[in-house]
Amino acid sequence: MTPRTLLQPNPKLDLVLERDVDVPTELVWAAWTQPEHVKHWFAPAPMKITECEMDVRPGGIFRFVMRSPEGEEYPSVGCFLEVVPNERLVWTDALLPGYRPSENPFFTAIVKLEPRTGGTRYTAIALHRDEKIRKQHEGGFHQGWGQVLDQLVEYARNM
Amino acid sequence: MTPRTLLQPNPKLDLVLERDVDVPTELVWAAWTQPEHVKHWFAPAPMKITECEMDVRPGGIFRFVMRSPEGEEYPSVGCFLEVVPNERLVWTDALLPGYRPSENPFFTAIVKLEPRTGGTRYTAIALHRDEKIRKQHEGGFHQGWGQVLDQLVEYARNM
Fold first, then answer.
1. What confidence tier does B31 reach under pLDDT thresholds 50, 70, 90?
2. A59 at the B interface (CB within 8 A)?
3. pLDDT tops 70 at residue B2
4. Given this model, what pLDDT does residue B61 score?
């Protein structure tokens, strides 16, 4: 397991969303790691996830397609790097499944979960290679990842 | 641990060097994972390793500098992805330490070790994102990685 010190975000290059949610850690983990759940909350509405494939282990595929109401499709493929159930999930689009370098690396995502009374401290971190990409991602990250966290919480209530 | 099926090379995109060497698996592993050893064999002579830094765990740094006899320096930095002692070491320059995407991704390297009577089956695999990069790497890989394996064997005899 990677030491925590290696996963500290750099404010110049990275984006961080931290929030306490009233969903048990195990449920957040399940919602995040099973394609049949991910489909229901991972795209910011009115976008939808139309395909989702996950092999949740280091080197395993994480592939999904988002579709806009106009029918435009946004496919993404990457691989998982670290999987610590109920604690930490790390994946990147800089590497394809089996660790092959990708054509269009954009970011690495770290999702950290910590149990809290009545729920979970949820931290999402996006790591970028430079300030330019961080800036491109800034609006979409804070709005998008915030919105899908609301959707996850809503969805998890009925899981 | 990544399933073996995920780490199968693709002949169009990847390069593979496989050879049986008369060095015990544990010694090959030690030579590959300790900077004070790596310095002695990892650069194809007359190149030299002048700096080497390794934090051999997933997300940990793998940084080195090669120097030519003319004094030109070739620095490289990446991170380890998988570390299975005496069996498998995976690292990439597509990610910096802590999994941050890098500026100039070139390849992912897999070193596999299997004990054999009298020594070790040594397999080095280089994964590339496209055929063009594979072709760029082809000459250097077969000559360079072959030569440094000879150097490793020679060095390991006196470890």
1. very high
2. yes
3. no
4. 96
Query: Looking at this protein, which amino acid is placed at residue A70?
Result: E
What is the least distance, in Å, from the CA of B118 to any CA of chain A? 31
> Which residues have a Cβ under 8 Å from the Cβ of A137 and sit 6 or more positions away?
A15, A106, A107, A126, A128
**Encoded tokens for A88:** 């930490």
Residue B7: per-residue pLDDT: 72
Q: What is the mean pLDDT of residues A35-47?
A: 97
Looking at residue A5, what is its pLDDT? 60
State how far the Cα of B40 lies from the Cα of B152, in Å rounded to an integer: 8
Nearest to B134 by CA among B94, B64, B142: B142
The three-state (H, E, C) secondary structure of B94-129, written as one string: CECHHHCECCCCCCEEEEEEEEECCEEEEEEEEECC
Q: Say what the pTM is.
A: 0.94
Pair of tokens at residue B50: 């002048």
Residues on chain B touching A95 (C-beta within 8 angstroms):
92, 94-95, 108
B112 CB neighbour count, 10 Å cutoff: 19
Cα–Cα distance measured from residue A44 to residue A139, given in angstroms and rounded to the nearest whole number: 13
| Exposed / middle / buried, residue A123 (Cβ in 10 Å: 0-12, 13-18, 19+) | middle
Q: Which of A90, A101, A107 sits opposite B105 (nearest CB)?
A: A101
What is the SS3 assignment for B150? helix
